[in-house]
Structures are given as C-alpha cells and as structure tokens.
Amino acid sequence: VQLVESGGGLVQPGGSLRLSCAASGFSVSTYRMMWYRQAPGKERELVAHINSAGGITNYDDSAKGRFTISRDNAKNTVYLQMNSLKSEDTAVYYCKARKGLSDYWGQGTQVTVSS
Q1: Looking at residue 41, what is its pLDDT?
Q2: For residues 35 and 80, what is the distance between their CA atoms, to the nearest angstrom?
C-alpha cells in the first residue's frame, strides 16, 4: 500500500493549488480518504474527508467554501482543490486512507502561501 502526494508549492495569497494523492496497492473507492495538514509547531489537523461510497464529503470550518476533495476511481487518485489560499493555509499536507482499523499515510507535500 502506498500513497504519494504531489502538487504542493509556493503560491501567493488568493491563489489556487490542486494536490493529488496517487494510491497503489488498494482501491481508493473502497477506503475513506482524507487530507490532513500540519503547520510548524502545530498538531496535524483534518482538513477534508470523502467516504468510500457515494462521495459524501466533509470539511474543517477553515476549508469550507474554499477547498474541494474529490476522487477519480479510474486513476485511483484523490485530489484536494484549494482556492482563495491564505497564509494560514501554509503547512505540509498529508493524504490518509482508512479502512476499518487500518490507516495509511503519504509522505506529505509542502504548501506555502506567501507574497
């Protein structure tokens, strides 16, 4: 089982980024998929979640209206579209897959929002 995030980088406030989480060894359509982030000196926090069936999504209040989590089952990839980025969105973003008691994490991708 492997998760590989990509798409991070440096962006100006108000800009957009799309993060990708490519999975191998399992099907993302059968797992709950989540995006977390961890800013320097802070705990890792859940940003967005999509369930394994039906595509029900949930967001942290800080992400509502700006971020969108989605899943492409054919590509076995989960995305996080981030719009209207703010400096406080700066963090390492991690993808996580959960099924039952099994959790799998990616290595993370850095997002820096700065002018």
Answers
A1: 94
A2: 8
Q: Check the CA dihedral 41-42-48-52 and report its sign.
A: positive
54 SS3 class: coil
Question: pLDDT class for 67, splitting at 50, 70, 90?
Answer: very high
Give yes or no for a contact between 37 and 47, defined as CB atoms under 8 angstroms apart: yes
Nearest to 75 by CA among 21, 34, 8, 36: 21
Report the mean per-residue pLDDT for the chain.
Answer: 95
Q: Which two tokens stand for residue 12?
A: 């100006």
User: 90 CB contacts (<8 Å, ≥6 apart)?
Assistant: 39, 111, 112, 113, 114
- Angle made by CA atoms 62, 87, 97, in degrees to the nearest 5: 50
